[in-house]
Amino acid sequence: RISRLVLPDRTGKSPEELYDIDPTPIGSGAYGTVRTVTRKANGRHLVMKTMDKESLPDVDRLLNEIRIQMDLDHPHVCKIFDTFEDDMKIYIVLESCKGGELLDFISSKSTFTELDAFIVMRQVMMAVRYIHGKGIAHRDIK
Question: Which positions are catalytic residues (predicted)?
Answer without folding.
Answer: 140 (proton acceptor)
